[in-house]
Every structure is written in structure tokens, then in C-alpha cells.
Design brief:
This protein is of the alpha/beta class and 235 residues long. 30% of the residues lie in helices and 26% in strands. The protein has seven helices and seven strands. Strands 1, 2, 3, 4, 5, 6 and 7 form a seven-stranded mixed beta sheet that branches. β3 and β4 form a beta hairpin. α5 crosses α6. The longest helix has 16 residues. The chain starts with a strand and ends in a 16-residue tail after the last helix.
Length: 235
């Protein structure tokens, strides 16, 4: 598929959207209403943390929740914004990340107390961030959106943290940044100086792996450059 292919990002994450835009892809944003706790409740703890399976299942659930909400007019508007015709195909991209630390999987802390405790646990440690990716190919006509083939995959990245003082932790938590990000940190914001390095794909630390995404869409028959729609203009 070498004509323009639209990208729909099933995520509210500004970091994921910014990562795609930096790679030349301005996506249509659709926030998923997937019941994440219900998805996780289906896993038997007797089988361990099941990190890969969980993030893959969560990503799939997000994609599944978004697809029924899509309308041709929304995709047409995105295409026109960038001087593109209505495409014949689109891809829905959904991701979910969880941090493996101390033999447990953690997601967003939501509260300052939990964030503070987790960051103290991360200080000076190397931990693994797991990110599931679900990509669904859509066939588009003037009046309908038809679901096609899909792929689900996972990437793991090791994140090396510096030693943080209690005062630094308190100041960071007070900003609110770590409250709604997986594992209580993000590399693309105020938390960046607290990360000494990354082993693996650095893009995945913000919740989406560009090399993995390229591999997946290629498997689905999509030419990666066909997704580009903002390489030569400001957003």
C-alpha cells in the first residue's frame, strides 16, 4: 500500500502523539474507553506476572474499543488537513505500558503517595518497561470503515535510574507529572534527568516503539512512508 495511509492513535498520551509527529505522522486521536481493570482481572496470578501477555491484551482492548467509534468523515478531515485525499486504508495503533520492578508489574500511580513510594523504589535501580502494541488495518470506502488484518506485539526496554534524594522525589511528585504515567516516570519531561540510560529502544520509554511499529505495519502490507503526512509543514 503506497498511497497515503491514515493513522489513528487510540491513546490520550501526549508523548505517544508527539513521538509519532516527530516521525512525520500526525495521527487522528481517539481515546479508548477500554475497561483496563477488567482485562487484567482475567489473568490468573498463579501463572506469575505475565508481563508480555498483559500489555498485549491491554493494547488489543484499546484498539477494539476505538474501532467502532471511527467515522469516515473524521478520517477525511485529517486527510484534508494535510492536503491528502481520502485514503483507501488506515491503521489503528494502540499501546499500553507497565513497569516491572521488584518482581511486580505497576502502572500509573494516580496518587502522590503511591508515586513517591514507587520512585523511591526505582532510585538507583535498573527496571524493565513492557509495552504492548496492537495495530489493526482498516479498509475505507466513502461510507464505511471495515476491519481487516491485525498484529499484536510487545517490546521490553531496560531503564537505568540515577540515585534520587528525598527532596528531589518530593519536588518531582509535587509537579504532578509522575501521577498519570506508567511506573511514575517519563523520560521526555521533568523526569528525564533522573534516567541515566536506556538499554533497548528509547522511543518505547514514552510508550510507543517506532521500530516495532514499522515492523508491524510492514507485515500488514503498509509502506511506512505512506503514513507520513506532516514532514514538510508545521502542525
Amino acid at each position: 500500500m503506497r498511497g497515503y495511509t491514515a493513522c489513528i492513535l487510540a491513546s490520550a498520551s501526549p508523548a505517544r502523539a508527539a513521538t509519532l509527529r516527530q516521525a512525520g505522522i500526525d495521527p487522528l486521536i481517539r481515546v479508548s474507553a477500554a475497561e483496563e481493570e477488567a482485562v487484567l482481572a482475567g489473568f490468573d496470578p498463579a501463572y506469575g506476572i505475565q508481563a508480555q501477555a498483559k500489555v498485549r491484551a491491554l493494547a488489543q482492548a484499546k484498539a477494539d474499543a476505538v474501532i467502532p467509534t471511527l467515522r469516515i468523515d473524521d478520517i477525511r478531515t485529517l486527510a484534508l488537513r494535510h492536503g491528502k485525499p481520502l485514503p483507501d486504508h488506515a491503521v489503528v495503533v494502540a499501546c499500553d505500558s507497565m513497569l516491572e520492578v521488584g518482581g511486580e508489574l505497576v502502572g500509573k500511580p494516580h496518587s502522590p503517595a503511591v508515586a513517591r513510594s514507587r520512585i523511591r523504589q526505582l532510585s538507583g535501580q535498573t527496571v524493565t518497561l513492557h509495552t504492548g502494541h496492537a495495530v489493526v488495518l482498516l479498509e475505507l470506502t466513502e461510507g464505511s470503515v471495515k476491519r481487516g488484518a491485525q498484529r499484536v506485539d510487545h517490546v521490553a526496554t531496560q531503564v537505568h535510574f540515577t540515585e534520587l534524594t528525598d527532596a528531589e522525589i518530593d519536588a518531582y511528585v509535587a509537579t504532578g507529572e509522575p501521577l498519570e504515567v506508567a511506573g511514575s516516570f517519563t523520560i521526555d519531561g521533568l523526569g528525564g534527568p533522573f534516567i541515566a540510560g536506556v538499554t533497548g529502544d528509547p522511543h518505547s520509554v514514552v510508550g510507543i516503539s517506532l521500530p516495532l511499529l514499522r515492523s508491524i505495519v510492514t507485515e500488514l502490507g503498509v509502506f511506512w512512508p505512506s503514513l507520513w503526512n506532516c514532514t514538510n509543514r508545521a502542525l
